[in-house]
Amino acid sequence: MVRESEVREGEIAVDMPAARDAGLVFIGRIRTPWTSRLMTPRQGRHDGPVCRLEIFEPWVPAIKGVDFYSNLEVIYWLHQSRRDLVLQSPKNNKSTRGTFSLRSPVRPNPIGTSIVKLVGIEGNVVLVRGLDCLDETPLLDLKPDRCEFTPLAPPQAGDFETE
Ligand code: SAM
């Protein structure tokens, strides 16, 4: 893990407020070939290696219907990230960008998302391509890619609001 006292030229770190429990639960863990952040892709690719989403009990029945979709959105907790940088220098060249203008893993709530290709389902394991996270990264959620998903529930008023 990067030591939180270390900042690159131009970067700004802040004192992190005490974490409050947002009520998140890890619904599984992600198994990937990568054990070093330096070897991990910056963004996953759909022709990348097959990775395993191991779903924990009691969430295994929630996999039902996932195989209807070819693309899924995976949401995960980048657990080894520091969380205190507001300005970052991704290129380490004195030039900085605000954290919210980046997809850096370093952010106040280190949530990562990827659109992945479904490869298959084996019991409690969903096999996908397109991830970019370390082995053992905690899994927060799994949902159909919004482009493929049509709501099953009937429409409601807000669906027709414009402006
Ligand atoms: N695709 C996600 C997104 O856009 O939200 C994550 C992108 S982030 C740039 C991917 C990088 O995060 C990897 O290249 C690696 O350096 C780092 N990373 C991956 N898994 C991590 C983990 N569990 N904890 C901390 N950093 C991680």
- When the domains are counted, the total is 1
- State the assembly state of the protein chains: single chain
Mean pLDDT across every amino acid position: 95
- Unreliable sequence segments: none
CATH class: Mainly Beta
Shape: globular
| N- to C-terminal distance | 45 Å
Sketch the major β-sheet: 6 strands, antiparallel, barrel
Compute the number of helices.
Answer: 0
Describe this structure in words.
- By secondary structure, the chain is an all-beta fold.
- It has a single domain, classed as YaeB-like (Elongation Factor Tu (Ef-tu), domain 3), CATH 2.40.30.70.
- 0% of the residues lie in helices and 31% in strands.
- The chain has no helices and nine strands.
- It has a six-stranded antiparallel beta barrel. Strands 1-5-6 form a three-stranded antiparallel sheet, with no helix packed on it.
- A hairpin with an 8-residue loop joins strand 5 and strand 6.
- It is globular.
- The N and C termini lie far apart (45 Å).
- The model has no long low-confidence stretch (mean pLDDT 95).
- GO terms for molecular function: methyltransferase activity.
- InterPro entries: TrmO-like_N, YaeB-like, YaeB-like_sf, YaeB_N_sf.
- Belongs to the tRNA methyltransferase O family.
- Keywords: Methyltransferase, S-adenosyl-L-methionine, Transferase.
- Pfam families: TrmO_N.
